[in-house]
Amino acid sequence: MKKTSSKKKDCLIYDYLTNTQSEASRRKLANTQRRAIYNDGPNILGEALYYKIKDYLKNYLKEICKKGLHLEGENLLRFYVKNWEYYRFSSELTNRFCRYLNRHWVQRQYNANVRGVYEVFIMALKFWQQVVLPQLNRQIRDYFEKQFLADVEEFYRQQAIILRAHNSVTGYLDKVVQHPNEKVRRVAPVLHSSELKSLINNVENVLIWDQLEAIYIKTKELLIEKKYSELPSLFKLVSQIRNALDELKKIVGEHIYQKGIDTIERVSGNAINNPTLYVETILDIRKKYFTVLQEIFNNEKTLIVVLDHACGKFINNNAVTVAAGNTTKSPELLA
Question: Is Chloroplast among this UniProt entry's keywords (predicted)?
Answer without folding.
Answer: no
